[in-house]
Specification:
about 220 residues, mainly alpha, three-stranded parallel beta sheet, about 45% helix
Amino acid sequence: MSLDCIALIAANVTDARTVWDICMSYDDDDRYSKTEAPMPRHINATGPQSNSFKFGIPPPESLAVCHLEYRRLFNDAVIKLQRLGGRLMPIDWNPFEEAGKLLYEGTFVSERLASLPGDWLDKNWDHLHPVTREVFDSVVARQSTAIEVFKDLQAKALYTRQAERVFAYSSSGVDVVVVPTAPMHWTVKEVEADPIGTNSALGTFSHCANVLDLCAVAVPAGTYS
């Protein structure tokens, strides 16, 4: 199990999809490579369903954390999707929200340390960025137990199964879940004042993808002044 995700940055969706189709191929030399996607892909954005699809969004109380301009732009994006033929469906957002919390609020952050050689941290501690040292310090101070890790794994399994139902082939299932990429963006000064808090908040709607083994695509939704 690994919660790390690779980000593909491209000038357009077509290029990103090309790289994605290559990356999703099975690699026998990669211990984490999967023979099939964790959840079925029952929609092809370039096929017949490009003009007819079902999508869900987080509930209003979850979207309330967004900056007003970001919320307005997200609402505009939802309207555009409906004009393209999308049908907005109610979904259970809870598994996505709870799974997102597991990424940094649970024991899974310990994977950052587990991926390092035994003495690497001691030898390179002074070379780490202060914020990175703070994150590692918090992981060590947490003293997570094996029991706590397994409880988080059980929660991950539960939220994954619940998320699968959201994407199920059914009258209530959706083809895609649409969320704001971030609730807002901070100034450099604000990030320097609270680097961990602001960076964590950036993933309010996207951290769940790591835990649930999902793929997400971020596209521009407009600008504001």
